Amino acid sequence: MGFARAGAWRLESTAKGGVRFELDALRHDRVVYAFVVDDAVAYIGICDSSGTTLTDRMSRYQNMLGAGTNERVVGLIRTAISEGHAVLIYALKPAPGPDHLNLAVDYIKGLEFPLIARFNPPWNKRR
């Protein structure tokens, strides 16, 4: 699908959520991201607003800021790592979308639900 490894999570007792992210790529980019556990996609999310970078989004998980999803997913990350699993961060930065009647098409938002439907990641809540 075009995802590339961007980083990983590790246990960190001094972090608010008990885990810390490390990014090797796409730190300053707006992307679709996936958390991969033992070569299986566990969660898919997006950098939702146009100014949100991968670093910004991972920081919200690490510090458990915002909606309850961040706290829930951090708990799943922490549990997986505690059980000896690696939790890797993959990212996809699509090419800019076309315009439709002078409206920019947002591929980041447009890819989220089809990717969730394709991979059916267990950490994504079903609507």
Annotate the secondary structure layout.
Layout: E1 4-11, E2 19-23, E3 32-37, E4 40-46, H1 54-62, H2 68-82, E5 87-92, E6 99-100, E7 103-104, H3 107-119
Antiparallel strand pairs: 1-2, 1-5, 3-4, 3-5, 6-7
Which features characterize this protein?
127 residues, 5-stranded antiparallel β-sheet, GIY-YIG endonuclease, alpha+beta, two-stranded antiparallel ribbon
Summed up:
The protein is globular.
Radius of gyration: 14 Å
Distance between the termini: 24 Å
CATH C-level class is Alpha Beta
Helical percentage:
25-40%
By DSSP (H or I, 4+ residues per run), the number of helices equals 3
- Would you identify the CATH architecture? 3-Layer(aba) Sandwich
Largest sheet: 5 strands, antiparallel
Mean pLDDT: 93
Percent strand equals 25-35%
Structural class comes to alpha+beta
Counting DSSP E segments of at least 2 residues, the number of strands comes to 7
Strand order of the largest sheet: 2-1-5-3-4
| SSE ordering | EEEEHHEEEH
Question: Low-confidence segments, ≥5 residues, pLDDT <50?
Answer: none
Number of domains: 1
Shape: globular
**And the CATH topology?**
GIY-YIG endonuclease
